[in-house]
Amino acid sequence: MTDTEQSREAVRRYFDTMAAHDWDAFGAVLADDVVYELPQTAERITGRDRLVRFNREYPGDWQLSVSRLIVDGQSAAGSMNFTVGEEEMVGLVYLELADGLIVRVTDFWPEAYEPPAGREHLTEQGVGGLDRLSRPGGS
Amino acid sequence: MTDTEQSREAVRRYFDTMAAHDWDAFGAVLADDVVYELPQTAERITGRDRLVRFNREYPGDWQLSVSRLIVDGQSAAGSMNFTVGEEEMVGLVYLELADGLIVRVTDFWPEAYEPPAGREHLTEQGVGGLDRLSRPGGS
């Protein structure tokens, strides 16, 4: 099995167990000393037990579906559509692996904003797509 | 040359020519009917000429450096640190390729925000890392 194949299997398990809220199985795909970073808030969580607990305790009745999965040796990137009640969010994830376990996760949660003025001659507006993100003020 | 190798070469050219503001070379790596999407603003730009023009006209004296590049067959993901004057931004990019040209680009520009309360027992705060993002209110 190549690095990419081994990583793909681990990353699929990462997302599948998260989607299933199966926290024991989720923990099994993480390295003991996994590092989880949220650059938007400058937060870091270190260690499997804390990261499992962070996910287990995460508030709200959320559901996710994976929209992209790109695996390259011991690195991977994914994206998720994430629903909490009426709100739709998009989660963007970069992962690093070693020995078939996840050693680093970096998560981003971009928010919708109004298109800047001055580029209407080039853009279509109000388009939907693969990434489902609630707009400010509804829908 | 495998799909992944061909894609890696094209994606490197995409970022290198953008970093160099070399818009003719940038255009040469795009398919005629390339689609560029910004899910956060629900905008779409269709076609090589418009996408080159969008980049050429983009305001500000910006510079970029690639922080991640993950290539998997005809799909890729990357991330960039992007500097405009004093402001540091992070750009997250997903790309799709066909015949060695880029046919779809999806860009995200996540913003910094304050850490939610209630998880201080699990997180370190104020950490830096690979992704350089100006904080609200400075630095």
List its salient traits:
homodimer, 139 residues, alpha+beta, six-stranded mixed β-sheet, 7 strands
Mean pLDDT of chain A: 95
Radius of gyration of chain A: 17 Å
Give me the strand/helix succession of chain A.
Answer: HHEEHEEEEE
How would you write the strand order of the largest sheet of chain A?
Answer: 2-1-6-5-4-3
Oligomer: homodimer
Beta fraction of chain A: 35-45%
What does this structure look like?
The structure is a homodimer of 139-residue chains. A 6-stranded mixed β-sheet of chain A has the order 2-1-6-5-4-3. The relative contact order of chain A is 0.19. Chain A is built from 3 helices and 7 strands. In chain A, a hairpin with a 2-residue loop joins β3 and β4 (75-84). The first copy, chain A, starts with a helix and ends in a 14-residue tail after the last strand. With 139 residues, the first copy, chain A, is of the alpha+beta class. At the A-B interface, β2, α3, β3, β4 and β5 of A face β2, α3, β3, β4 and β5 of B.
